[in-house]
Write a structure and sequence with these properties.
With 498 residues, the chain is of the alpha+beta class.
Length: 498
Amino acid sequence: MQPKTIHEKILFGLKIKQARQRKKLSFSDLAEKTGLSISYLNEIEKGKKYPKKDKISALAAGLDLSFDELVSAETDQSLAPVQELLKSNFLNELPLELFGIELPKVVELIASAPVRVSAFISTLLDLSRNYALKEENFYFGALRSYLELHNNYFEDIEQEVAHFCRDFEISSQRPLELQKLEGILQKHYGYQVLNNELDAYPELEGLRSLFIPSSRKLLLSGSLNPVQKSFQYGKELGFNYLQLEERAYTSSILKGKVFDEVLNHSRAIYFSVALHLPKDDIIRDIRAFFNLPKWNGEAFLDIMHKYRATPEMFFHRLTNILPEFFGLKKLFFLRFIHDPEAGEFSIDKELHLYQKHHPHGNALSEHYCRRWISVSLLQDLLGMQEEGKFVQTIVSAQRSNYYGTEDQYLCFTLARPSYPHPDKNVSVTIGIHLQEGTNDIIRFASDPGIQQRVVNNTCERCPIQDCSERAAPPVVVMRKERARSIQKRLDSLLGDSV
Protein backbone atom coordinates (compact mmCIF):
# COMPACT_ATOMS: atom_id res chain seq x y z
CA MET A 1 0.00 0.00 0.00
CA GLN A 2 1.31 3.45 -0.97
CA PRO A 3 2.08 5.82 1.93
CA LYS A 4 -0.93 7.99 2.63
CA THR A 5 -0.91 11.76 2.61
CA ILE A 6 -1.99 13.77 5.63
CA HIS A 7 -5.16 14.67 3.73
CA GLU A 8 -6.05 11.02 3.13
CA LYS A 9 -5.42 10.22 6.79
CA ILE A 10 -7.65 13.08 7.90
CA LEU A 11 -10.50 12.08 5.60
CA PHE A 12 -10.29 8.41 6.58
CA GLY A 13 -10.25 9.28 10.28
CA LEU A 14 -13.28 11.53 9.91
CA LYS A 15 -15.21 8.80 8.11
CA ILE A 16 -14.40 6.32 10.88
CA LYS A 17 -15.46 8.77 13.58
CA GLN A 18 -18.65 9.65 11.76
CA ALA A 19 -19.60 5.99 11.27
CA ARG A 20 -18.79 5.12 14.90
CA GLN A 21 -20.91 7.97 16.24
CA ARG A 22 -23.83 7.07 13.97
CA LYS A 23 -23.74 3.57 15.42
CA LYS A 24 -23.54 5.14 18.89
CA LEU A 25 -20.42 3.12 19.62
CA SER A 26 -17.84 4.18 22.17
CA PHE A 27 -14.14 3.61 21.59
CA SER A 28 -14.41 0.63 23.92
CA ASP A 29 -17.30 -0.80 21.89
CA LEU A 30 -15.43 -0.45 18.60
CA ALA A 31 -12.24 -1.83 20.12
CA GLU A 32 -14.12 -4.91 21.24
CA LYS A 33 -15.70 -5.38 17.79
CA THR A 34 -12.46 -4.91 15.83
CA GLY A 35 -9.74 -6.14 18.14
CA LEU A 36 -7.94 -2.82 17.79
CA SER A 37 -6.74 -0.89 20.82
CA ILE A 38 -8.54 2.25 21.98
CA SER A 39 -5.38 4.33 21.61
CA TYR A 40 -4.90 3.10 18.02
CA LEU A 41 -8.51 3.92 17.14
CA ASN A 42 -8.02 7.37 18.66
CA GLU A 43 -4.98 8.01 16.46
CA ILE A 44 -6.88 6.86 13.37
CA GLU A 45 -9.73 9.27 14.03
CA LYS A 46 -7.31 12.15 14.63
CA GLY A 47 -5.70 11.54 11.25
CA LYS A 48 -2.39 10.37 12.69
CA LYS A 49 -2.59 6.74 11.53
CA TYR A 50 -3.83 5.00 8.40
CA PRO A 51 -4.38 1.28 9.06
CA LYS A 52 -3.28 -1.61 6.88
CA LYS A 53 -5.75 -3.63 4.83
CA ASP A 54 -6.47 -6.25 7.47
CA LYS A 55 -7.28 -3.58 10.06
CA ILE A 56 -9.46 -1.69 7.56
CA SER A 57 -11.37 -4.93 6.99
CA ALA A 58 -11.83 -5.30 10.76
CA LEU A 59 -13.09 -1.70 10.98
CA ALA A 60 -15.50 -2.25 8.07
CA ALA A 61 -16.96 -5.34 9.76
CA GLY A 62 -17.24 -3.58 13.13
CA LEU A 63 -19.06 -0.64 11.56
CA ASP A 64 -21.25 -2.70 9.18
CA LEU A 65 -19.67 -1.03 6.16
CA SER A 66 -17.89 -2.40 3.13
CA PHE A 67 -14.13 -2.16 2.68
CA ASP A 68 -14.65 -0.02 -0.44
CA GLU A 69 -16.89 2.44 1.40
CA LEU A 70 -14.15 3.13 3.94
CA VAL A 71 -11.27 3.55 1.50
CA SER A 72 -13.27 5.49 -1.10
CA ALA A 73 -12.56 9.19 -1.49
CA GLU A 74 -16.29 9.78 -1.60
CA THR A 75 -17.92 11.34 1.47
CA ASP A 76 -21.45 12.24 2.47
CA GLN A 77 -22.74 15.81 2.42
CA SER A 78 -21.70 16.64 5.98
CA LEU A 79 -18.02 16.11 5.17
CA ALA A 80 -18.11 17.62 1.68
CA PRO A 81 -16.78 21.05 2.78
CA VAL A 82 -13.88 19.40 4.63
CA GLN A 83 -13.08 17.38 1.53
CA GLU A 84 -13.19 20.54 -0.56
CA LEU A 85 -10.81 22.17 1.91
CA LEU A 86 -8.40 19.25 1.62
CA LYS A 87 -8.56 19.25 -2.18
CA SER A 88 -7.79 22.98 -2.21
CA ASN A 89 -4.36 22.23 -0.68
CA PHE A 90 -5.27 24.74 2.03
CA LEU A 91 -3.57 22.86 4.85
CA ASN A 92 -0.33 22.64 2.91
CA GLU A 93 -0.34 26.38 2.27
CA LEU A 94 -1.15 27.43 5.82
CA PRO A 95 2.06 28.80 7.38
CA LEU A 96 1.10 27.21 10.69
CA GLU A 97 4.64 26.77 11.96
CA LEU A 98 5.25 30.53 11.79
CA PHE A 99 2.52 31.02 14.37
CA GLY A 100 3.59 28.14 16.62
CA ILE A 101 0.60 26.00 15.58
CA GLU A 102 1.09 22.28 15.07
CA LEU A 103 -0.73 20.66 12.15
CA PRO A 104 -1.90 17.71 14.28
CA LYS A 105 -3.75 20.19 16.50
CA VAL A 106 -5.62 21.52 13.48
CA VAL A 107 -6.42 17.95 12.46
CA GLU A 108 -7.63 17.20 15.97
CA LEU A 109 -9.93 20.24 15.81
CA ILE A 110 -11.44 19.03 12.54
CA ALA A 111 -11.77 15.49 13.87
CA SER A 112 -13.40 16.61 17.12
CA ALA A 113 -16.49 18.13 15.52
CA PRO A 114 -16.54 17.46 11.78
CA VAL A 115 -20.12 18.58 11.17
CA ARG A 116 -19.69 21.94 12.91
CA VAL A 117 -16.26 22.52 11.44
CA SER A 118 -17.63 21.57 8.02
CA ALA A 119 -20.35 24.19 8.32
CA PHE A 120 -17.78 26.79 9.36
CA ILE A 121 -15.45 25.88 6.50
CA SER A 122 -18.32 25.96 4.05
CA THR A 123 -19.16 29.48 5.23
CA LEU A 124 -15.55 30.61 4.79
CA LEU A 125 -15.38 29.16 1.29
CA ASP A 126 -18.66 30.83 0.33
CA LEU A 127 -17.47 34.15 1.69
CA SER A 128 -14.20 33.86 -0.23
CA ARG A 129 -16.11 33.22 -3.46
CA ASN A 130 -18.64 36.00 -2.86
CA TYR A 131 -15.92 38.56 -2.12
CA ALA A 132 -13.59 37.25 -4.84
CA LEU A 133 -10.87 36.48 -2.31
CA LYS A 134 -7.87 34.80 -3.90
CA GLU A 135 -4.97 32.81 -2.55
CA GLU A 136 -2.74 35.87 -2.59
CA ASN A 137 -5.24 37.73 -0.38
CA PHE A 138 -4.77 34.98 2.16
CA TYR A 139 -0.98 34.95 1.75
CA PHE A 140 -0.63 38.70 2.26
CA GLY A 141 -3.07 38.61 5.16
CA ALA A 142 -1.05 35.82 6.77
CA LEU A 143 2.14 37.80 6.17
CA ARG A 144 0.72 40.87 7.91
CA SER A 145 -0.28 38.72 10.87
CA TYR A 146 3.22 37.22 10.98
CA LEU A 147 4.88 40.66 10.91
CA GLU A 148 2.50 41.94 13.58
CA LEU A 149 3.21 38.90 15.75
CA HIS A 150 6.93 39.80 15.72
CA ASN A 151 6.45 43.60 15.96
CA ASN A 152 7.97 43.69 12.47
CA TYR A 153 11.45 43.25 13.93
CA PHE A 154 13.69 40.30 13.01
CA GLU A 155 17.01 40.08 14.79
CA ASP A 156 18.19 37.23 12.55
CA ILE A 157 17.98 39.44 9.45
CA GLU A 158 19.63 42.33 11.32
CA GLN A 159 22.55 40.03 12.12
CA GLU A 160 22.74 38.77 8.53
CA VAL A 161 22.94 42.37 7.31
CA ALA A 162 25.82 43.00 9.73
CA HIS A 163 27.59 39.84 8.49
CA PHE A 164 27.03 40.90 4.88
CA CYS A 165 28.61 44.30 5.53
CA ARG A 166 31.66 42.62 7.07
CA ASP A 167 31.95 39.98 4.35
CA PHE A 168 31.85 42.54 1.55
CA GLU A 169 33.60 45.39 3.35
CA ILE A 170 30.63 47.74 3.17
CA SER A 171 31.57 51.11 4.62
CA SER A 172 29.68 52.36 7.66
CA GLN A 173 29.07 55.60 5.78
CA ARG A 174 25.61 56.20 4.33
CA PRO A 175 24.21 56.61 1.77
CA LEU A 176 25.52 53.44 0.17
CA GLU A 177 27.54 53.54 -3.03
CA LEU A 178 25.35 52.31 -5.87
CA GLN A 179 28.34 50.99 -7.79
CA LYS A 180 29.46 48.94 -4.79
CA LEU A 181 26.16 47.05 -4.61
CA GLU A 182 26.06 46.55 -8.37
CA GLY A 183 29.61 45.23 -8.30
CA ILE A 184 28.76 42.61 -5.64
CA LEU A 185 25.81 41.41 -7.70
CA GLN A 186 27.97 41.12 -10.79
CA LYS A 187 31.23 39.74 -9.41
CA HIS A 188 30.03 37.56 -6.54
CA TYR A 189 26.58 36.45 -7.69
CA GLY A 190 27.15 36.43 -11.45
CA TYR A 191 24.45 38.97 -12.34
CA GLN A 192 24.24 40.84 -15.63
CA VAL A 193 22.75 44.21 -14.70
CA LEU A 194 20.98 45.68 -17.72
CA ASN A 195 19.89 49.27 -17.23
CA ASN A 196 16.84 50.47 -19.20
CA GLU A 197 16.38 46.95 -20.64
CA LEU A 198 12.88 46.57 -19.19
CA ASP A 199 11.69 49.52 -21.31
CA ALA A 200 11.77 47.26 -24.38
CA TYR A 201 8.68 45.44 -23.08
CA PRO A 202 5.79 47.95 -22.88
CA GLU A 203 3.47 45.32 -21.40
CA LEU A 204 5.74 45.25 -18.34
CA GLU A 205 5.38 48.98 -17.74
CA GLY A 206 5.08 49.58 -14.02
CA LEU A 207 7.63 46.96 -13.01
CA ARG A 208 10.88 48.28 -11.61
CA SER A 209 12.94 45.19 -12.28
CA LEU A 210 12.82 41.63 -13.57
CA PHE A 211 15.35 38.90 -12.70
CA ILE A 212 15.79 36.09 -15.22
CA PRO A 213 17.36 33.20 -13.27
CA SER A 214 18.44 31.12 -16.29
CA SER A 215 20.73 33.88 -17.57
CA ARG A 216 21.24 35.75 -14.26
CA LYS A 217 20.07 38.93 -15.99
CA LEU A 218 18.57 41.76 -13.96
CA LEU A 219 16.49 43.97 -16.25
CA LEU A 220 15.88 47.46 -14.85
CA SER A 221 13.37 50.12 -15.79
CA GLY A 222 14.89 53.25 -17.27
CA SER A 223 12.74 55.47 -15.07
CA LEU A 224 14.39 54.32 -11.82
CA ASN A 225 16.20 57.00 -9.89
CA PRO A 226 19.42 56.08 -7.99
CA VAL A 227 17.52 55.54 -4.72
CA GLN A 228 15.04 53.12 -6.29
CA LYS A 229 17.81 51.31 -8.14
CA SER A 230 19.86 50.93 -4.95
CA PHE A 231 16.85 49.48 -3.16
CA GLN A 232 16.32 46.91 -5.94
CA TYR A 233 20.00 45.93 -5.70
CA GLY A 234 19.58 45.51 -1.95
CA LYS A 235 16.61 43.19 -2.44
CA GLU A 236 18.51 41.02 -4.92
CA LEU A 237 21.44 40.83 -2.50
CA GLY A 238 18.97 39.84 0.22
CA PHE A 239 17.56 36.97 -1.86
CA ASN A 240 21.07 35.67 -2.50
CA TYR A 241 22.75 36.26 0.85
CA LEU A 242 19.80 34.86 2.82
CA GLN A 243 19.59 31.97 0.32
CA LEU A 244 15.89 32.51 -0.33
CA GLU A 245 15.15 30.12 -3.18
CA GLU A 246 11.35 30.40 -3.38
CA ARG A 247 10.95 33.91 -4.74
CA ALA A 248 9.19 36.21 -7.17
CA TYR A 249 11.34 37.40 -10.06
CA THR A 250 9.50 40.69 -10.50
CA SER A 251 10.12 43.77 -8.36
CA SER A 252 6.68 43.36 -6.80
CA ILE A 253 4.62 40.19 -6.43
CA LEU A 254 1.98 40.09 -9.14
CA LYS A 255 0.40 36.84 -7.94
CA GLY A 256 1.67 34.87 -4.97
CA LYS A 257 2.00 31.19 -5.88
CA VAL A 258 2.89 29.91 -2.41
CA PHE A 259 3.23 31.55 0.99
CA ASP A 260 7.03 31.07 1.10
CA GLU A 261 7.32 33.29 -1.97
CA VAL A 262 5.44 36.10 -0.21
CA LEU A 263 7.39 35.62 3.03
CA ASN A 264 10.77 35.56 1.28
CA HIS A 265 9.90 38.69 -0.67
CA SER A 266 9.21 40.41 2.64
CA ARG A 267 12.51 39.16 4.08
CA ALA A 268 14.46 40.47 1.07
CA ILE A 269 12.76 43.86 1.45
CA TYR A 270 13.67 43.91 5.16
CA PHE A 271 17.27 43.05 4.26
CA SER A 272 17.51 45.92 1.78
CA VAL A 273 15.92 48.44 4.16
CA ALA A 274 18.18 47.38 7.04
CA LEU A 275 21.20 47.56 4.73
CA HIS A 276 20.41 51.12 3.64
CA LEU A 277 19.36 52.36 7.09
CA PRO A 278 21.69 50.68 9.64
CA LYS A 279 20.05 49.93 12.96
CA ASP A 280 22.37 51.74 15.35
CA ASP A 281 22.58 54.85 13.16
CA ILE A 282 18.85 55.22 12.59
CA ILE A 283 18.12 54.63 16.30
CA ARG A 284 20.54 57.42 17.20
CA ASP A 285 19.00 59.80 14.64
CA ILE A 286 15.41 59.08 15.68
CA ARG A 287 16.29 59.48 19.36
CA ALA A 288 17.78 62.89 18.63
CA PHE A 289 14.70 63.82 16.61
CA PHE A 290 12.34 62.76 19.39
CA ASN A 291 14.31 64.93 21.81
CA LEU A 292 13.48 68.08 19.87
CA PRO A 293 11.21 70.45 21.88
CA LYS A 294 8.93 71.09 18.89
CA TRP A 295 7.78 69.17 15.82
CA ASN A 296 10.13 69.91 12.92
CA GLY A 297 9.09 68.46 9.58
CA GLU A 298 12.32 69.47 7.87
CA ALA A 299 14.36 67.63 10.51
CA PHE A 300 12.21 64.56 9.90
CA LEU A 301 12.86 64.76 6.14
CA ASP A 302 16.57 65.33 6.74
CA ILE A 303 16.86 61.90 8.38
CA MET A 304 15.31 60.26 5.32
CA HIS A 305 17.53 62.23 2.96
CA LYS A 306 20.63 61.39 4.99
CA TYR A 307 20.23 57.72 4.03
CA ARG A 308 18.98 58.53 0.54
CA ALA A 309 15.85 56.50 1.29
CA THR A 310 12.39 56.58 -0.22
CA PRO A 311 9.48 57.42 2.11
CA GLU A 312 8.46 53.74 2.05
CA MET A 313 11.96 52.61 3.06
CA PHE A 314 12.13 55.20 5.82
CA PHE A 315 8.73 54.35 7.28
CA HIS A 316 9.40 50.62 6.99
CA ARG A 317 12.49 51.14 9.13
CA LEU A 318 10.50 53.12 11.67
CA THR A 319 8.09 50.20 12.08
CA ASN A 320 11.12 47.99 12.77
CA ILE A 321 12.78 50.10 15.45
CA LEU A 322 10.05 52.07 17.25
CA PRO A 323 8.44 49.07 18.97
CA GLU A 324 11.71 47.28 19.69
CA PHE A 325 13.96 50.12 20.84
CA PHE A 326 11.63 52.95 21.88
CA GLY A 327 8.84 50.93 23.50
CA LEU A 328 6.27 52.41 21.08
CA LYS A 329 4.52 49.12 20.44
CA LYS A 330 1.06 50.44 19.58
CA LEU A 331 1.36 51.86 16.11
CA PHE A 332 0.03 51.55 12.59
CA PHE A 333 1.38 52.13 9.09
CA LEU A 334 -0.77 53.06 6.09
CA ARG A 335 0.04 53.77 2.46
CA PHE A 336 -2.61 55.63 0.47
CA ILE A 337 -2.91 55.93 -3.30
CA HIS A 338 -4.80 58.98 -4.59
CA ASP A 339 -6.23 58.95 -8.10
CA PRO A 340 -7.20 62.62 -8.68
CA GLU A 341 -9.01 61.88 -11.94
CA ALA A 342 -11.30 59.34 -10.29
CA GLY A 343 -11.36 61.23 -7.00
CA GLU A 344 -10.52 58.02 -5.14
CA PHE A 345 -8.35 57.35 -2.10
CA SER A 346 -7.37 53.73 -1.47
CA ILE A 347 -5.13 51.92 1.02
CA ASP A 348 -2.78 49.45 -0.62
CA LYS A 349 -0.48 48.67 2.33
CA GLU A 350 -1.09 48.59 6.05
CA LEU A 351 0.42 47.21 9.21
CA HIS A 352 -0.99 47.23 12.76
CA LEU A 353 1.25 46.41 15.70
CA TYR A 354 -0.09 45.24 19.07
CA GLN A 355 -3.73 45.68 18.06
CA LYS A 356 -6.01 46.57 15.17
CA HIS A 357 -6.05 50.35 15.27
CA HIS A 358 -8.87 52.65 14.17
CA PRO A 359 -7.59 53.68 10.73
CA HIS A 360 -7.53 50.62 8.52
CA GLY A 361 -8.42 49.44 5.05
CA ASN A 362 -12.11 49.22 4.20
CA ALA A 363 -13.27 46.87 1.45
CA LEU A 364 -16.83 48.24 1.37
CA SER A 365 -16.21 51.12 -1.06
CA GLU A 366 -16.79 53.70 1.65
CA HIS A 367 -15.11 57.10 1.84
CA TYR A 368 -12.19 57.41 4.23
CA CYS A 369 -12.34 60.32 6.65
CA ARG A 370 -10.97 63.39 4.85
CA ARG A 371 -9.73 64.69 8.20
CA TRP A 372 -7.06 61.99 8.29
CA ILE A 373 -3.66 63.54 7.70
CA SER A 374 -3.00 60.70 5.21
CA VAL A 375 -5.83 62.04 3.03
CA SER A 376 -5.68 65.78 3.70
CA LEU A 377 -1.96 65.95 2.87
CA LEU A 378 -2.68 64.26 -0.48
CA GLN A 379 -5.29 66.93 -1.11
CA ASP A 380 -2.73 69.60 -0.26
CA LEU A 381 -0.25 68.02 -2.67
CA LEU A 382 -2.83 67.97 -5.46
CA GLY A 383 -3.60 71.64 -4.82
CA MET A 384 0.07 72.54 -5.23
CA GLN A 385 0.30 70.51 -8.44
CA GLU A 386 -2.78 72.22 -9.87
CA GLU A 387 -1.11 75.57 -9.15
CA GLY A 388 1.83 74.42 -11.27
CA LYS A 389 4.21 73.91 -8.38
CA PHE A 390 6.67 71.02 -8.65
CA VAL A 391 6.64 69.25 -5.32
CA GLN A 392 8.74 66.16 -4.63
CA THR A 393 7.79 65.39 -0.99
CA ILE A 394 5.76 67.23 1.63
CA VAL A 395 5.53 66.35 5.31
CA SER A 396 3.11 67.05 8.14
CA ALA A 397 2.06 65.82 11.58
CA GLN A 398 -1.30 65.52 13.30
CA ARG A 399 -2.75 64.44 16.62
CA SER A 400 -5.82 62.44 15.66
CA ASN A 401 -8.57 62.03 18.26
CA TYR A 402 -10.97 59.25 17.26
CA TYR A 403 -14.59 60.26 17.69
CA GLY A 404 -16.40 58.53 20.52
CA THR A 405 -13.21 57.08 22.03
CA GLU A 406 -10.32 58.19 24.21
CA ASP A 407 -7.82 57.01 21.59
CA GLN A 408 -5.39 59.57 20.25
CA TYR A 409 -2.58 59.03 17.74
CA LEU A 410 0.43 61.12 16.82
CA CYS A 411 0.71 60.74 13.05
CA PHE A 412 3.64 61.55 10.77
CA THR A 413 2.82 61.67 7.05
CA LEU A 414 4.83 62.12 3.86
CA ALA A 415 3.12 62.68 0.50
CA ARG A 416 4.73 62.54 -2.94
CA PRO A 417 3.94 61.90 -6.62
CA SER A 418 3.50 58.21 -7.39
CA TYR A 419 5.83 55.91 -9.27
CA PRO A 420 5.33 54.54 -11.90
CA HIS A 421 2.08 56.49 -12.32
CA PRO A 422 2.90 60.21 -12.05
CA ASP A 423 -0.80 60.96 -12.55
CA LYS A 424 -1.37 59.57 -9.05
CA ASN A 425 -0.03 60.54 -5.64
CA VAL A 426 1.01 58.50 -2.62
CA SER A 427 1.11 59.15 1.12
CA VAL A 428 2.69 57.07 3.85
CA THR A 429 1.69 57.48 7.48
CA ILE A 430 2.91 56.10 10.75
CA GLY A 431 0.57 56.61 13.70
CA ILE A 432 1.75 56.21 17.31
CA HIS A 433 -0.85 55.58 19.99
CA LEU A 434 -0.49 58.30 22.62
CA GLN A 435 -0.60 56.98 26.16
CA GLU A 436 1.04 57.52 29.52
CA GLY A 437 4.79 57.85 29.06
CA THR A 438 4.76 58.76 25.36
CA ASN A 439 5.72 62.38 26.14
CA ASP A 440 8.84 61.08 27.90
CA ILE A 441 9.88 59.37 24.67
CA ILE A 442 8.71 62.01 22.16
CA ARG A 443 9.26 65.41 23.75
CA PHE A 444 7.26 67.28 21.12
CA ALA A 445 4.23 64.93 21.27
CA SER A 446 2.16 67.68 22.92
CA ASP A 447 3.55 70.52 20.80
CA PRO A 448 0.61 72.94 20.32
CA GLY A 449 1.95 73.64 16.85
CA ILE A 450 0.86 70.17 15.76
CA GLN A 451 -2.64 70.22 14.29
CA GLN A 452 -5.16 68.35 16.46
CA ARG A 453 -8.34 67.03 14.87
CA VAL A 454 -11.29 64.85 15.76
CA VAL A 455 -11.46 62.13 13.11
CA ASN A 456 -13.44 59.01 12.33
CA ASN A 457 -13.08 56.01 10.06
CA THR A 458 -15.38 56.57 7.07
CA CYS A 459 -17.92 59.22 6.20
CA GLU A 460 -20.67 56.62 5.94
CA ARG A 461 -20.14 55.62 9.59
CA CYS A 462 -19.49 59.07 11.05
CA PRO A 463 -22.11 60.98 13.10
CA ILE A 464 -20.03 64.18 13.36
CA GLN A 465 -22.32 67.10 12.53
CA ASP A 466 -21.46 70.00 10.20
CA CYS A 467 -18.32 68.38 8.82
CA SER A 468 -17.07 70.48 5.92
CA GLU A 469 -14.76 67.66 4.77
CA ARG A 470 -17.57 65.09 4.50
CA ALA A 471 -17.41 63.23 1.16
CA ALA A 472 -20.57 61.12 1.61
CA PRO A 473 -23.67 61.14 3.81
CA PRO A 474 -23.61 59.06 7.03
CA VAL A 475 -25.83 56.34 5.56
CA VAL A 476 -24.73 53.64 8.02
CA VAL A 477 -25.44 55.92 10.97
CA MET A 478 -28.83 56.85 9.51
CA ARG A 479 -29.70 53.21 8.93
CA LYS A 480 -28.85 52.34 12.54
CA GLU A 481 -30.83 55.28 13.86
CA ARG A 482 -33.81 54.22 11.74
CA ALA A 483 -33.57 50.68 13.12
CA ARG A 484 -33.42 52.01 16.69
CA SER A 485 -36.47 54.23 16.16
CA ILE A 486 -38.41 51.29 14.71
CA GLN A 487 -37.47 49.12 17.70
CA LYS A 488 -38.35 51.89 20.14
CA ARG A 489 -41.81 52.31 18.62
CA LEU A 490 -42.37 48.54 18.56
CA ASP A 491 -41.39 48.33 22.21
CA SER A 492 -43.85 51.06 23.13
CA LEU A 493 -46.72 49.45 21.18
CA LEU A 494 -46.04 45.91 22.27
CA GLY A 495 -44.90 46.65 25.79
CA ASP A 496 -48.24 45.86 27.43
CA SER A 497 -48.88 42.70 25.44
CA VAL A 498 -45.50 40.99 25.68
